Amino acid sequence: MSNLVLDSASRWFGNVVAVNDVSLNIGPGVTGLLGPNGAGKTTLMAMMAGFLAPSAGHVTLDGMPVWRNTEIYRQIGLVPERELSFGYLTGRQFVRANADLHRLPDAAEATERILAEVDMVEPAARRLDTYSKGMRQRVKIAAALVHQPSVLLLDEPFNGVDPRQRMHLMDLLRRLGDDGRTVLFSSHILEEVERLARHIEVVVSGRHAASGDFGAIRRLMTDRPVQYAVQSSDNRALGAVLMARASVRAVSLRGDHLDVQVDDLGSFAVELPGLARQHDVTLFELSPSDESLESVFAYLVAR
Amino acid sequence: MINTTIAKLALQALLGRRRFYLLLAFPVLLIGLVGLVTALTDGEAAWEIVPGLGYTLVLPLVAILAASSVLGPEVDDGSIVYLLSKPVSRYGIAISKWLVALAATLVAGSLPIFVAALITGDTTRAVALFVGAVVAGTTYSALFLAISAVTRHAVIASLMFVLIWESLLGNLFTGVAWLSISQWGVRIAHALSDELPDPANLPWAIGASLVVTVVGVWFAGDRLRSFSLRGED
Asked: Which residues of A touch B226 (CB under 8 A)?
């Protein structure tokens, strides 16, 4: 059982601030680090893994500083996003080298056990440069897990992995979390994080934007004001009707359509067809104008 | 301190790359050229070119290739994190990698210099030249390992040091000999055979070689301790 703690950690490169005053406490179980590309997830991960000194603040594992502390890797397993460049090794040789570097007393046995756990026994005799993306990812995870660390850090582990392999990896990480290990993975895809993580930390533009279980994060994301563009046979009449509803925050006429800002997405969607029929307005088009994840993140930051 | 797993991986990295053939080309060229000159003129004329060609060109180039092969690519592409995310002493990693680079430098640099010198005749001066080449090869490989740990442009930086500082400026100004690894080697060789020049003083040459070697390897280890991973974002 290990706790990874960031205490007001910041990191800047020259005058670019990559991580801005982030405090986190990552405990046992699976935690997802969610944020759009360029939000500072990799920088955060690097600080947590001892591969970057915080410019300000502290990063500690069970009270011990992580930076320039070689012994910390007895407890940390790291799966970097970076590709393996040891193409000339077989999967088994690579995992075994990791076991040897940890000076495990039963390195050969530990290698086979972990290869079985990630389901890579059969291709383990092949060279790494013949592997698919998903296989390389699994070998990287095996290498990070071979010494049974209490903390596993994974940077974008599902990037480029096909859906079947992704399911497999998720099952594996879920099992590790259930075993009481502290598993932290980063992703820029909400659905991915939601399916796996009990707890989610959201970072946007280097800042800690939200924190909670996936239900809370999902509510934050769906209950935010959403902008819709509506086209109908009588925009002005429809606008007047919509403005009277509790779920609608703002209506404006713009050219041939109506911009509607909605607070409560659920009831708005239910009410709209009925209201239109009741007032003899025909709806031609209804489209969300800011459904991208970036706008969701932007809302969380501005909140 | 020596980590056999790191050394094994470094050896595989050295042998597994195409650069390795380039590493072998230098000693072949040196021995071939010296052999040719010996055959066309005589041993004494060939002897004239051995220290210059061997110490200031073949030895440092071989050392650059060896040192940058064991450390450079891993630092460049960041895959060294796979080695560094282990409870392994950073100084141990530096020493292990340096030993592999050193072995390659001695085999592909110092030994061929000895063979080339033997071709020209006298054994005493060949042994002297070999001893100097071992010292200079040791110092070179430590220096270039340190450079590989600091900059992504390690090969260029190392080449500039060798070609501009040691070769060009070293030929123009005799004072450069006091700060030139190849000249320290020559001075040590001079202690064993008078047929070699005497560019600096002997205790200085030995002390300076020792200091650069120890500090170079230590510095490489210290840089690895502070290795930073910078993301794409």
From this structure: 53, 68
What pLDDT score does B61 carry?
95
Q: Looking at the partner chain, which of A37, A53, A97 has a beta carbon nearest the beta carbon of B5?
A: A97
What is the number of other CB atoms lying within 10 angstroms of the CB of residue B125? 21
Distance from CA of A286 to the nearest CA of B (A): 36
Average pLDDT over residues A127-138: 89
Contact A202, A213 (CB under 8 A): no
Q: Indicate whether A207 pLDDT > 60.
A: yes
- Give tens-digit pLDDT for B22-75: 889 999 999 999 999 999 988 888 888 898 889 889 999 999 999 989 988 888
For chain B, give every domain's residue range. 4-225
Q: Considering only the beta carbons, identify the residue of A38, A100, A144 that sits closest to B233.
A: A38
SS3 A105: coil
The answer, for B204 touching chain A at a CB cutoff of 8 Å, is no
**Radius of gyration of chain B measured on its C-alpha atoms:** 18
Residue-averaged pLDDT of chain A? 88
CATH topology of domain A224-302: Alpha-Beta Plaits (3.30.70)
What is A131-168 written as a DSSP string? --HHHHHHHHHHHHHTT--SEEEESSTTTT--HHHHHH
Residue B79 to residue A88, Cβ atoms within 8 A: no
- pLDDT of residue B5 exceeding 70, the answer is yes
Question: With contacts defined as CB-CB under 8 Å, which chain B residues touch A52?
Answer: 228-230
User: What pLDDT is attached to residue A292?
Assistant: 55
Burial (CB count <10 Å: 0-12, 13-18, 19+), residue B10: buried
Average pLDDT over residues B156-180: 88
- Which of the four pLDDT bands, split at 50, 70 and 90, describes residue B231? low
- Chain A environment of B225 (Cβ under 8 Å): 68, 70
Beta carbons of B5 and A101 less than 8 Å apart: yes
How many helices, marked H, and strands, marked E, lie in chain B? 12, 0
**Contact at CB, A51 and B86, closer than 8 angstroms:** no
Structural class in CATH, domain A4-221: alpha beta
The confidence score (pLDDT) of residue B232 equals: 45
Mutation for testing the B interface, residue in A66, A70, A159, A203 having most B CBs under 10 Å: A70
- Mutate which: B6, B70, B82, B222, vs A, most A CBs within 10 A: B82
Burial-class residue B180 by CB neighbours within 10 Å (0-12, 13-18, 19+): buried
Which of A46, A71, A98 lies nearest to residue B231, judging by beta carbons?
Answer: A46
pLDDT at A81 over 80: yes
Euclidean distance between CA atoms B30 and B56, whole angstroms: 12
Mean pLDDT of A85-112: 92
Per-residue model confidence (pLDDT) at position B152: 82
Start and end residues for every CATH 3.30.70.100 domain found in chain A: 224-302
Distances (CA, A) of A210 to A17, A49, A214, A220, A297: 19, 22, 11, 9, 10
Q: Label residue A21 left, alpha or beta by phi (over 0 means left) and psi (-120 to 50 means alpha).
A: left
